[in-house]
Write a structure and sequence with these properties.
By secondary structure, this protein is α+β, with helices and mostly antiparallel strands. The protein contains six helices and seven strands, in the order βααααβββαβαββ. Helices cover 38% and strands 28% of the residues. α1 packs across α4. The termini are far apart.
Length: 163
């Protein structure tokens, strides 16, 4: 669908339904496969995708009501999972990168969470330079590196006061 001016219709965000599960799981696998190899490596990505953990994560959060679909032209082009004060997962279809959809989806998360929580958070891999740059450009504040097993992660926060 396009507008009268011939531009794509604006995207919308809606709660995910069980009918969306397969499309959301496929989007998450495609995003991980395409975008994470550069900083996690082939072996780690292949293991993670093969383990089914990504599919299970999406399914669990969809069943709990925390998954959202970013839809444009009738097609799911993005996914977010909101869990308490946390943006647990945010992905845009790799074919749709650099079109402003990530910013649109992140603003939706902020507008959903900040009325309920004074500060909201998310995590990203330290070596995911595209995500790090994106969150910082969107005004999120970088915190301390997170301790734990696996690849290095860092926490980002946004507060009501920051607007």
């Amino acid at each position: 669908m396009t507008t009268a001016q011939g531009r794509p219709a604006p995207p919308t965000v809606r709660p995910a339904t069980l009918e969306d599960l397969g499309a959301l799981q496929a989007l998450a696998r495609r995003t991980i496969d395409t975008c994470y190899r550069g900083f996690l490596g082939d072996e780690a990505v292949d293991w993670f995708l093969g383990s089914g953990a990504s599919d299970a994560h999406v399914k669990t959060h969809l069943e709990q009501g925390g998954a959202h679909c970013l839809v444009q032209d009738g097609r799911i082009v993005g996914l977010s999972i909101l869990d308490g004060p946390t943006v647990d997962l945010m992905m845009i279809d790799p074919e749709q990168h650099r079109r402003g959809l990530g910013g649109f989806l992140l603003r939706h998360a902020e507008e959903t969470l900040l009325p309920r929580y004074a500060t909201v958070r998310l995590e990203t891999f330290t070596s995911n330079t595209a995500a790090v740059s994106f969150y910082e450009a969107c005004g999120w504040l970088r915190g301390e590196p997170l301790e734990g097993e696996g690849p290095d992660k860092v926490e980002y926060t946004r507060s009501r006061a920051a607007g």
